[in-house]
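**Reference record**
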Amino acid sequence: AALETTIESLLRSTSVIFEIKTFRKHPSLSDHAADAIGAQVQEWLERYLMIERMVPDAELSADLPVGDYAVSSWDDIEAAAKNLRKRWQLGTDPIDNLMSLLEDKGIKIGLISGHESFDACTFEVEDCHVIAVKAGIPGDRQRFDLAHELGHLVLNLQDDRDPKIDEEKAAHRFAGAFLVPAEMARRELGSTRTRIDVHELMILKRKYGLSMNAWIYRAKDLGIISSNVAGRLFGYFKKNGWDKEEPGEAYPAEVPLRMDTLVHRALAEEAISRSRAEEFLGRAIPVLA
C-alpha cells in the first residue's frame, strides 16, 4: 500500500537491461522525465517477457532485416522500403494495421503514457527488438512514428552517403515510403500537380493512415509537387492550425494485442490466476456474463 503497487510486482523475478538505439523527444523533455520513461518501459517489458516465457510456443522468431539496407542516397531509402514490403509480401496496398504487422514480425510494441514531449524510442533487449510509442495520439501520427522507428532498425547509413541525409531524415523518408509506396503515391495523385485539394488529402489520409501533412512531404519528395507548392500548402495548414490538429475525423489509433492475447491464453489454460493476469495487464479484467 505504501508503494502503491501489487504483491505480484514485488515478487517479479524477471529483470531486463536494455540498450536504447533511438530516443525521439522534444527538447523540453527533462532528464528526469526521460528516466521515468525508461522505468515505465522496463516495467512493462518485464511483464511482457515473463508471460511470453510462461506460454508454450509463444516466442516468435523475428523476421526483421536489421541494418540490411545500405543507404547512400534517397533512392536507396525508397528501395529499402520497397524491398521490405516485398520480403513481408505486403504488395503495394495500404497497411491495415501497422502495429499488428510489426508484432507478427517479432517486434514488441508498447504504449507509453503521461509524457507529452516524448514521441518514440527503439531499443534491444535479450536479442529482441522493441518499439515504444506515445499513447493517446491520433493513429496516423502513431503509425508514422512506428514506421520511422522501423526505419532506424533496418537502414544502414553509409559513410559516403549524400551529406543531406542524416539519420532522422532517412527514417522520415523511409516511413513515408513504407506506408505509401512511390507507385501508389503517383497513382493516387498523378505524376505532376500544381495544386492539391485539402479534401483530397483527407481521403488519402483515411485510406493509407498517413497524415495530410506527411502526404504533402511525400508528394514533394517524389517530385509530384514543387517545393513552392508544398510551402504554400504548409503555410495554409499553419494558418488554420492544421499543422497541430488536422481537419476532419481523426484516424483511429492502433493497439498492441499480442501481450494481452498471451495473458488471456495463460489464464484460460489456468497457468496463472485471475489476479496474476490482471497484474500482467496492469488493469482489471471485466467479468463477462
